[in-house]
Task: structure prediction
Amino acid sequence: MSLKLKALLKSPWVFHLSTGSCNNCDIEILDCLTPRFDIERFGILLAGSIKHADVLLTTGSCNRQSVVRLKRLYEQVPKPCLVAAIGECALSRGMFIHSYNCPVPLDRIIPVDVYIPGCPPKPEAMIAGIVKLIEKVKAGQKRKKK
Ligand code: SF4
Result:
């Protein structure tokens, strides 16, 4: 396991990007940072810049305008970068599925590693999703060793 991946799994730094959400999912992400849920106790930190991030938390329905920014940010993030799709909009475009402005779901634009469903998903679901993502990567690394 590379040093970068080892550090990522120990303390993933997350960057939050909204690609056209109603902001409810974003509020739930902020809730994870409050003392009630306090995700920092798991080593999960909110990064201010995409260039410092290990995990990209994406919300929203990927409208035409934000897709350009999403691709540009994904190019800038240091690899390996894990992507979490948060909320129905990011998973399948949710209620915007028939909108002319949201032609494709997130996983057709960039690779997604974990899907966290809900409209909006609860902070507990987000924390469980990130923990599962870390376990998935660890299991993948163990399988590679064998
Ligand atoms: S999944 Fe629901 S709460 Fe989240 S951005 Fe879409 S409509 Fe809003």
User: Anything to note?
Assistant: The chain has a mean pLDDT of 89. Strands lie at 13-18, 45-46, 55-59, 82-86, 114-116. The first helix runs from residue 3 to 10. Residues 21-22, 24-25, 59-60, 87-89, 94-95, 119-120 surround iron/sulfur cluster (CB under 6 Å).
